[in-house]
Amino acid sequence: MAISMYQASVPLFVKMLGNLSAILKKAAAYAEAKKIEPRVLLDARLAPDMLSLTRQVQIASDTAKGCGARLAAVDVPKFEDNESSFDDLQARIAKTIEFLNGLKAQQIDGSEEREVTIPTRDQPLKFQGLPYLQYFVLPNFYFHVTTAYAILRHNGLDVGKMDYLGAR
Question: What is the pTM of this model?
Answer without folding.
Answer: 0.96
